[in-house]
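User: Second chain of the day. Same drill as before.
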Amino acid sequence: MFETLVSTDRALAHHRDGPLADERNRYLQHCTAQGGTRDSLRLRARSILWVAEHMSPSDFGSVNASRLHEIVYGRVSPTSHGLAPTTAATCVCFARPWLKYLGWWPQPEESVPFGPALEHFVAWMRDERGLTPCTIEQWRYRALKFLCWCSDTDRNLATLQPQDIDAYFVNYGAKRWSRISAGGIAKMLRVFLRHAASTGACSPILAGSIPGNRRYALESLPYALSWEDVRRVVATASSDSEGDIRDRAILLLLAVYGLRRGEVASLRLDQIDLAAGLLHIWRLKRRQPQVYPLVPSVAEALRRYIHEVRPNVSHAEVFIRTQAPRFPIQATALYNIVTRRLRALGIQAAHLGPHALRHSCAAKLLADGLTLKEIGDHLGHRSASATMTYTKVDLGSLRQVADFDLGGLR
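Assistant: Same format as last time:
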């Protein structure tokens, strides 16, 4: 590995003969596999070599934060004969992940209140209910928030009472949640507490003590953007940079096909058939595949990303981070990709994330005359009721109804 990073025999011998050569070499190979550039790897190699040269044998196997600070900053000097402060900061920055990779960095165990109950809940959602990873992640996060509140307020899950649940909504949630959000959290808590009770972790009366708030059909307006705004946000990703080429393909998938962010993040290379012009999507809600024809603009955006700028990594997912480590992007990252571009254009809407583009797709299809059944099929809805909300923005059709002559009927 060292020979690919240095250009002189002297430098190569320095790296090879330095302390912990095997440990440094393995780590640099790992960084290369994660998409590290040659320049970053060279700087990383020099930094960890310097740290290795100044470690003592007693450091081999365990180096904590204070010891690393002592190793590096103990040799900082404002003169040319010592380590410059900026160089010291770089050494610490690169040494920490190297030591973690080796298992030499003591990791404090994450303290999760009532951890067994939470992990049993996660395993049940995954293995028995078969919920999507996105749903599991959200419900685990919300359940953890509740359990942390219980711990912070000296409440024990085993002795929890209905009035404690009320206190959670009144004292913790009143200033944080909307009425609709509170309803979703109440639903999650009922499921969590019912499962916890089945394992003996809490009282069986808790789940039934949580009332659901009243929800009205079609009570909220969809937050679709105008199609002109959709065109504008796609146009912001028009440069030749890797980030723009990737983001353009993502934005088009969200807007043209109305995909959910999780469906975009999990899209694999084998689901795209550029030769046949087909896009295979695994619909998260329907739990079944769906095949779409690739429209030319989307096909070109995907072709350009995959064949021209996508990093050469072993991951099957299509969309990869633009910075090392070169992992597939997470569904949560798509929110930042979309929101950042919408805010830069000054676009105002109730919601500015990926779902706004999904709503925009539905509204455009409705305006183009597709039926609710056709729109629901395109979006992967499980039922027609999920599509009904888009009828509230079809003002053109409402005006046509208003123009009917009722023939004098009163």
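The radius of gyration is 27 Å.

User: Great, on to the next one.
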